[in-house]
Every structure is written in structure tokens, then in C-alpha cells.
Amino acid sequence: MDIIKVNKLSKTFGSLKAVNQISFNVREGEIFGLLGPNGAGKTTTIKMLTTLIKSTSGAALLNGSSINKDQNSIRKSIGIIFQDPSLDDELTGRENLEFHAILYNIKKQHMKEKIAEILKLVELEDKADTLVKNYSGGMKRRLEIGRGLVHEPKILFLDEPTVGLDPQTRRHIWEYIKKLNESKRVTVILTTHYIEEADYLCDRVAFVDHGKIVALDTPKALKAKMGGDIISLGVNMNGSLLESKFKHIKGVKKIVTHDNYVDITIENGEQRIPEVVSIAESNKIIINSVNLHKPSLEDVFIYYTGNKIREEEGSWKNNIRAVMAKRGR
Ligand SMILES: Nc1ncnc2c1ncn2[C@@H]1O[C@H](COP(=O)(O)OP(=O)(O)OP(=O)(O)O)[C@@H](O)[C@H]1O
Ligand SMILES: [Mg+2]
Fold it and tell me: Is residue 104 classed exposed, middle or buried when 0-12, 13-18 and 19+ CB atoms within 10 A define those classes?
């Protein structure tokens, strides 16, 4: 059964189409991912589905309720964990959960039990009575996820659940998300720009770019659709100049170029490398690196959009480097 049905949902801000007629369905019990670079429209989509902002046009049903008409019943059946932390630092973990339970009119005797269960689930029992300002980043995130579960939502929205966390804590959070999806049968919709996160966690993934869904399927099917292997060449010039040189090689399915790279999707890749190298040599192209691999979700994203998903920290550092280089430092 589809617990979420989204039909041509759009949001414009002035002349910007932040979300542009997207349609997708989410099945009950699924972990569904919206994957895309910064500014793709993921948070805006989540905000419309959780009734925090009004859509410009289109419709969506959550558990049978319309986002345009039944905001109250939707709010009761969902939990939201935002991209930006929203805990009260001056309260303890337990108090944060209690505060949320009161907002949702949860009966007092039931509340105690419920909160104990959640603290156990997110492994914060021994920190329950510590002020949140003394929590680590990962502990705060776990508490937020726990808080999203207090009123027993059928659907949980997680906007960038692991952004800014170290890889180990990130893995931990993934395990909690899997655990609660399995033990509570909560349907989870999450946004992320971490490829491995979507690959590891999601039953199905929608790639979002410039407000549109460009591909949607299970990670496995998305990778399989690529067909063949990928030969990625690092070259001494802008890759886009080189597409025509390689397109006649036998078995080539697609060529995508980005920065100083040419990614050739090809059958039996390992047998084709000599030919690729010899074409490069005869065209006086200097090859800095050659990499052969099976398609990853990142490759699928590049295939559909021609762009890498930018890791925000990475691109931020690169921007600084570019500015410094320009200034001759
Ligand atoms: N309230 C707003 N007013 C004007 N523009 C907005 C507003 N909210 C979002 N936008 C714009 O809409 C686009 C989509 O933003 P959104 O926050 O949905 O992206 P995102 O995919 O969540 O990105 P990120 O990975 O950085 O969180 C961006 O260009 C953003 O600047
Ligand atoms: Mg966002």
C-alpha cells in the first residue's frame, strides 16, 4: 500500500522553481530517500509534505489525508526531524522528550513508559538526566530522532539526519534508523546528499536535481540500469572537449564529462582500457588517472544529471582554495 502519494507538487519562490512538478509514491514501511545536491529542493519538498509551507500547486496524500485540506490529521500522523537542530539546550534529554509529549497531549502515565522506551531505543538512558548542552553532536541527533517518535507517528521525516557528524556517529545513526523502521514499522522519508547513506539505508531512492526527480528506483536497480562498467579518465583538460573522441569505441553506452574527468560507461570495461588509452595518446591527451569500477549510486547520479553531488564541506574548501589561488596565495 502507498502511504504517501505525491502528484505534481510544486513550490516557487519568486521566479525560482524550487520544486517543479514532482510526483512519487512511498510504500508503507519503506525507507525512501530524496537524494540531491545543495539547493535541489529536498527540504522544500519535505516542508510541503509536512504542511510547514503551502505548495504553489499540486497535491499529496499522506495516510489518506490531503496536505492542502487536512493539515491537523497529517500533523498527528507524522514525526519530523529537521536539518537544523531544534532541541532545548537548557533542558535534559528526558525533559526535551516530556515537553514534546505534552505538546502532543500524551497521557501522563503512558508518557513515562513511552519516554523510557525511546531513551532505550536511542541508547541515551544513562544520559537522560544530563543537560542537552553537554551532549555530543551524535547524542543530540539521537535525541532528536527519539523525540520524533514520542507520539508514535506512522511516518517519520528526517531532513539530512547525519549532516555534520563524523563517519562513525553517522553509521550509528543509520543503525537507529534501520532499527526503528524494522521494530516499529515506521515509514521513513529522508533527505540526504550523502550517496552512501542513501545506498545503505533506502529501499528506494529518488534523485532530485533542480527541483525535479530525474530517476527513481531501488539502489540496486538504478545501478543495474547503467549497464556495464565505468572507465573514469582523469585528463589534462576540460573533459567536455573529449566526448567525441571516445564515443565510437565498441560497447560504449554513455559518456559523461565533469571537470577534468571523462566517465565512459561501457561493456566489458577491463578489455577496453587499452583502446581508450591508445585513443587518448593519438589525440595527445595526457591521462593523469584511469579508474575502472562497477557503477555506484554516485555514477548513476552523474549519468542522469552530468554533475557530481557536491559534498558541502569539500566544495566550500575548494571555493576558498580557488579564491586564494586567484589572489596568488
Ligand atoms: N523561503 C525561501 N525563500 C526563497 N528561496 C528559498 C526558500 N527556501 C528555499 N529556497 C530556495 O529553494 C531552493 C531549494 O532549497 P531547499 O532548501 O529545498 O534545497 P535542499 O535540496 O534541501 O538543499 P540542501 O542540501 O542544501 O539542504 C534553493 O535554491 C533555495 O535557495
Ligand atoms: Mg535541505
Answer: middle
C-alpha cell at 108: 501522563
> Looking at per-residue confidence, does 235 or 62 come out higher?
62
State how far the Cα of 267 lies from the Cα of 269, in Å rounded to an integer.
5
Q: The CATH number of the domain where 276 resides is what?
A: 3.30.70.100
Q: Which residue range(s) make up the domain with 150? A: 2-222
Task: Render pLDDT for 136-165 as a digit per residue (tens, 0 to 9).
Answer: 988 998 899 889 888 889 999 999 988 878
Which residues have CB under 8 Å from 31's CB, separation 6+? Answer: 177, 178, 181, 187, 188, 190, 201, 202, 203
Any residues with CB less than 8 A from the CB of 17 and at least 6 apart, and which? 10, 11, 210, 211
Q: pLDDT (tens digit, 9 = 90+) per residue, 52-91?
A: 999 999 999 999 999 999 999 998 889 998 877 789 999 9
Ligand 1 near 20 CB (within 6 A): no
| Cβ of residue 44 lying under 6 Å from some atom of ligand 1 | yes
Is residue 328 domain-resident? Answer: no
For the CA of 14, the closest atom of ligand 1 is 4
Q: What gap in Å lies between CA 303 and CA 192, rounded to an integer? A: 18
The verdict on residue 317 lying in a domain is yes
Among 12, 13, 22, which residue has the most ligand 1 atoms within 8 Å of its CB, making it the best to mutate?
Answer: 13
Taking the centre of ligand 1 as the mean of its atom positions, its distance from the CA of residue 38, in whole angstroms, is 8
